[in-house]
Structure formats: C-alpha cells, structure tokens
Specification:
Blueprint (H helix, E strand, L loop, with lengths): L1 H33 L3 E3 L6 H13 L4 H9 L5 E6 L2 E6 L2 H9 L4 E3 L18 H12 L4 H4 L3 H14 L5 H18 L7 E2 L2 E2 H18 L1 H10 L10 H30 L10 H15 L6 H32 L1 H14 L7 H4 L3 H14 L8 E3 L3 E3 L2 E3 L4 E4 L50 H18 E5 L7 E4 L3 E4 L4 E5 L2
Parallel strand pairs: 1-2, 3-10
Antiparallel strand pairs: 2-3, 4-7, 5-6, 7-10, 8-9, 11-14, 12-13
Helix pairs in contact: 7-8, 7-17, 8-9, 8-13, 9-10, 9-13, 11-12, 11-13, 13-14, 13-16, 13-17, 14-17
Keywords: Heme, Iron, Membrane, Metal-binding, Monooxygenase, Oxidoreductase, Transmembrane, Transmembrane helix
GO molecular function: heme binding; iron ion binding; monooxygenase activity; oxidoreductase activity, acting on paired donors, with incorporation or reduction of molecular oxygen
Family: Belongs to the cytochrome P450 family.
C-alpha cells in the first residue's frame, strides 16, 4: 500500500510540475524583475485561451479582461500567461511590439490549423528565402494600381449577393461577399458557381476554418494533442468530428487542385500576353510554365494550392468581420449611419464606386479605422515560438517560449488617444495628429514591419465598397429579439450572435 501511495504522490507531483511549476516559475521570476511593467494572467492548462474564453463568458467581449487590466495598469508592457505548459508572453508595449515585428526572423509562427498540406507553403506561414521569393512575386499584384481593375467586379459581387442573400446571418452574409471577391480575384471565371459540400465555396471554407479554430478552444484533448503531435494531431486517436474535418479538408484540396490543373492546361495552349488581364492564378500558372520551360522549377502545384487557401483564409474572414463590425456600429449609432449615408449619396449617388469616388469616402474610411482601433478582428497576431534565446528590451525570452503581439493594446490608452475607450469615428477626420506619442507601432491594424499584411489595400477597398453600397440600399437596425450582443471569436474577433442585425430596404 505504501508503494502505491508513493507512486501516486510522485505522479501527482510530476503532473503538478509539468502543468504548473514549469510554466509558472519563469513567469513569476519575470514578474519580479519587471514589476508594474508586467501583468500576470496564469491559468493552468488553458492559459491564454482560458483568458479569452472567460472574458467572453464574463464580459461578452474576448478582449475586455485584458483591456481592463491594461487600462488599470498603463505602465504594463507585457502580459505573462501560458500556452499549456509553456510560458507565453503577450507583447503590449509599443517599443516591444516594434522590436518583435522588425526581428521577425527570430520567431516561428505556430500553424493555427495543424493540418498537413493546408497553408504551410503559403505566404502567411513561409519563412526565410521562400517567404522572400513569394512576397516579391505577389507584391506587385497587390498595389492599388493593379487592384483598381477589380473595382467593377467588387461592385457587382456586393450588389448581387446583397440582393439574393436573406441577410439573417451577418457573418455568413459578409463572408459570401468577401469570399466571392477572393475567389474571383484568384480564379476568375474558372470558379464560377464553385460549390463545396453542397454550399457556396466561400461559405464552406469559412465554416471549415472557423470550426477548426473553435475546436482548439473548446476541446482540451485536441489542443493538448496539437501541442504534442503538431501536424499529426488529426491522425492520433481522432474522434468522428476530427475525421469529418480531415475529409472536408481533403475535398477542398481536391477541388482546388482540379481548377489549378485545368488552368495550367488552358494557359499552356493559349498563354495570356496582357498581364493586366490576369487573375492571381494566371500569374502563378504563367510563372509555373515559364520555370518549367527553363527547367528551374521553384513553384509547383502544391504551392499554388497552399497560396489560394492562404489568401482565402487571410482575405475573406478579416474583411468580412471588419465590414460586419462596421455595420453593427452603424446600427448601434443611427446618427453615424445617417452621416455615412449622406456622404455616400453626395459622393457616389446611384453610381457604382470607381477609382475617383472611392478615395472621397472619407467618413467611411474613418469608420473603418475606428473599428480597427477598438475591435480589430485580428486582435492578436498568430502565436509564435522563440527560435533561440533572445533579448527584447529588458526581457530575456527563452528558446521555445511562445510570444503573441497584441497590436491593439495601445489603442485603448488615453496616453495615445483622447477618450480612448469612446467610439468616435470623427477623430480620424481631424487634420492634426490623431495619435499621441506615436512611434509608428501604435495603430497598426495590418501589423507592421517586413511581414505586414500584403493585402491591406484590397481589404480597405473592399470594406469601403461593402459599407457604402449596403448603407445606400438598406437601413441597418439592431435586432430587438437579440438580448445580448457580444464580441466573441471564431478564428477572428467578431460581433455575435449572427442574427444581431436587421436590414430594412430603403424606399
């Protein structure tokens, strides 16, 4: 009996060390070193994800627990938490954020899906020379000069989907628009009517990525598996839901690969000479065929597939949730909605949005910036691991630790914005300096440094068109049947529940 007791106590001690002491002791030492510059938020096992879920439950807002702590202690530069049994440092100070963004090569992104052959070879996850090659290749395609040719398509997509959609599910409504724009921008007419799992492709993909993200937050077993087995997670003791996810992912890969192969054969026979008429897939396939001819193959079909999923994932959900949040604030503040409608009527009237009038939608741009400031969908960056011991300001980060940049941390501080917690889009219409004590890393909705968002011009262009055309046609109202609005998280921060808004056609 004594032997069993000793073994049991030893096992309990080992588990306590592994789950509690191993991550907690380094955090306590850092807290002692940093004092008021650090806020401790340690939760055994659940860690930072536990902070998010409890904040939603207690405050109806995924970020409010952290925001309250930062407002209470404006001296804080980091929040000390844990990623299961690993110290996790949430970077909040602007100088610290600057250093980690500029020294991006010292950190490695953690795959948010942990699925094999999904986004690993796309721009978001690539590292080193592969990332530099992709960034250079895609960079010219995302300039405003190149993107403005897509304005007619964006107008048409917004108007068509707004007319056909029942608009009972805000997030699906927005995703149908933004997903269609991404699909048409990547595949052009080749993807006309593309369906997955019996649904419009954009909705099927959004639901798939959202479900995967929620599974990691809600299923502790899956989360722990992902830490232990990385991309083999889905093969180790999979449940029925996990098997279904893998099946759906493989179906996406198969459908997308079919389109890529089809386009390769089309352009092999009939190359496009005018680059201005190329969609993203055409650019990739043209380069693929050129490299094949020169026997210098760097791009392959798998990379093109990963790039599509990456651009869809990065370009659909972010713009959809940004636009949906803007519409929510217009419903919450009818006077702002009236001001935005007045601008739309004066600037574009009953016409489509073109290059000239797009840049005159100053109030809509200000609305978007204010939403980015207070409710940025990308409220934190992807989790990253520290490759080697590294000094960031006075903090010594250890190899294997996890860091996350909270790029909106300074947006809620009165030291950087007047009445920082107040929603006031007109602050962005002022001619003077909106941001106080700005080091260039205070308001960074699209991140900053070498790895900032390559698609930011397209995202802003699209969001302006969505807001302008929907406000022109519909009066946006809060749904009186919804008792509690919350800012939850699917993959990104978004307004919930999905039926929170009503759209009443203007006469």
């Amino acid at each position: 009996m004594e032997l069993y007791l000793i073994v049991l106590l030893s096992l309990i001690a080992l588990i306590a060390y592994f789950l509690i002491l191993k991550p907690l002791v380094p955090l306590l030492i850092l807290k002692l070193q940093l004092g008021d510059k650090a806020i401790l938020m340690f939760y055994p096992i659940s860690g930072l994800l536990g902070v998010f879920t409890k904040s939603i439950k207690n405050n109806h807002d995924v970020m409010e627990t952290m925001n309250k702590a930062l407002r209470k202690n404006p001296k804080a530069k980091v929040i000390l938490s844990n990623y299961f049994n690993t110290p996790c440092i949430l970077i909040t100070g602007s100088e610290y954020i600057k250093d980690t963004f500029l020294d991006h090569n010292d950190f490695e992104k953690i795959n948010p899906f942990m699925l094999p052959s999904f986004i690993q070879r796309g721009l978001l996850m690539m590292e080193g020379e592969g990332w530099k090659r992709q960034r250079k290749f895609l960079g010219s395609a995302f300039t405003f000069e190149k993107l403005k040719s897509r304005l007619p398509m964006m107008n048409k997509v917004v108007q068509s989907i707004a007319e056909k959609d029942d608009k009972k599910n805000l997030n699906d409504f927005m995703a149908r628009i933004t997903g269609e724009v991404v699909i048409k921008s990547f595949f052009g007419e080749l993807a006309e009517g593309l369906q997955l799992e019996g649904k419009d492709a954009q909705i099927a993909l959004i639901q798939l990525t959202g479900e995967i993200s929620l599974m990691y937050m809600e299923n502790v077993f899956l989360f722990v598996k992902s830490l232990l087995f990385k991309e083999r997670t889905w093969d180790i003791f999979p449940g029925q839901k996990e098997k279904d996810i893998v099946r759906r992912v493989e179906n996406v890969r198969m459908k997308v690969k079919e389109l890529i192969v089809k386009r390769i054969e089309q352009l092999r026979e009939n190359p496009i000479q005018d680059e201005e008429k190329m969609v993203f897939l055409d650019l990739y396939v043209t380069e693929y065929l050129k490299q094949q001819k020169q026997k210098e193959q760097q791009i392959d079909i798998e990379e093109i597939l990963h790039q599509f999923i990456t651009l869809f994932f990065a370009g659909t959900d972010t713009t959809a949730t940004t636009s949906g949040t803007c519409l929510y604030y217009l419903a919450k503040y009818p006077e702002i909605q009236s001001e935005i409608l007045e601008e739309v009527q004066q600037v574009i009237g009953n016409n489509d949005i073109n290059e000239e009038n797009l840049n005159k939608l100053n109030k809509i741009n200000a609305l978007i910036q204010e939403v980015f400031r207070l409710k940025n969908p990308a409220f934190v960056t992807l989790f990253r691991t520290v490759k080697q011991d590294k000094q960031v300001q006075e903090i010594k980060l250890k190899k294997g630790w996890v860091i996350v940049q909270m790029q909106n941390a300074n947006s809620i501080q009165d030291s950087h914005f007047d009445n920082a917690t107040e929603f006031n889009y007109k602050r962005w219409l002022n001619k003077g300096n909106v941001i106080k004590n700005d080091n260039g890393f205070i308001h960074i909705p699209f991140a900053a440094g070498p790895r900032n968002c390559i698609g930011q011009h397209m995202a802003l262009m699209e969001a302006k068109i969505i807001i302008a055309l929907i406000v022109r046609k519909y009066k946006i109202l809060l749904n009186p049947a919804v008792e509690q609005i919350r800012f939850g998280v699917k993959f990104l921060q978004c307004v919930e529940p999905d039926n929170c808004l009503l759209f009443e056609k203007r006469i």
